[in-house]
C-alpha cells in the first residue's frame, strides 16, 4: 500500500552540476530516452506517467474507445488500467503543464483541475507517494533521481474524493457518470443473481438426492 510522504525541499543546482548530472543520467539510460542540455541552460528529456484513473474521462466521441456512455459530441469512458504515456518536456515545464499536455495527448476534455500528479518512490521495501504541487518541475525530479523508474515514477490520479472540485464538472459529465454507475450497478446485480441462482440449483439438487426414496 502506498504511504503518503511530504514534499521534499527543492535543491538548486548550478549549471555545471546540471551538466554533470545529465552526463551521468545519459550514461545510465537503457531505453534511449536521453536528456539534452541546450546552450541557454534549459534541458529537455522524457518522463513516463502511469495513468491510475478511477473515474471516467470525457473525450470527443470520435477519439473514444472502450466502454462508454454518450452525451452530445463527447464520450465518457474508463481509461484502461496500467496505461503509461511518455512525454517529451523541458526543465521549465511545471506539473500543471504536464497534466495539461497529458490530457491533450489523450484528447481529454475534462478540466485539468480535476487531476493531480504524484511521484512514487521505492525505499527499503516500502512504496511512498507524494502529490506534487502545480509549480514543481517533473524533469528536474527525473534528473535528480536518475532514469530508473523503481527509484522514481510519476502517476496521474484524480484528486482524492474530499478534494474533488465538483464545480469543475459540467452537467453532461455528471449525468454521464451517473449513467455509467447505474449500468455498472445493474451488471453487478445480474452477476450476483446468477451466482445465487446457481447456488440455489445446487442446493435443491443436493436436497433431492438426500430425500430420494430407496
Summarize this structure briefly.
Helices cover 34% and strands 25% of the residues. It has four helices and ten strands, in the order E-H-E-E-E-E-E-E-H-E-E-H-E-H.
List the SSEs and their pairings.
Layout: E1 3-4, H1 15-28, E2 36-37, E3 43-51, E4 57-60, E5 68-71, E6 74-77, E7 83-90, H2 95-105, E8 115-123, E9 126-131, H3 138-145, E10 153-158, H4 171-210
Parallel strand pairs: 1-9, 3-10
Antiparallel strand pairs: 2-3, 3-7, 4-6, 5-6, 8-9, 8-10
Q: How would you describe this structure to a colleague?
A:
- This protein has 214 residues and is α+β, with helices and mostly antiparallel strands.
- It folds into two domains: 15-161, Phosphatidylinositol 3-kinase Catalytic Subunit, Chain A, domain 1 (Ubiquitin-like (UB roll), Roll), CATH 3.10.20; 167-210.
- It has four helices and ten strands.
- Strands 1, 2, 3, 7, 8, 9 and 10 form a seven-stranded mixed β-sheet that branches. A three-stranded antiparallel β-sheet has the order 4-6-5, with helices on one face.
- A hairpin with a 2-residue loop joins β8 and β9 (126-131).
- The longest helix has 40 residues, at 171-210.
- The relative contact order is 0.16.
- Residues 63-71 have low confidence and may be disordered.
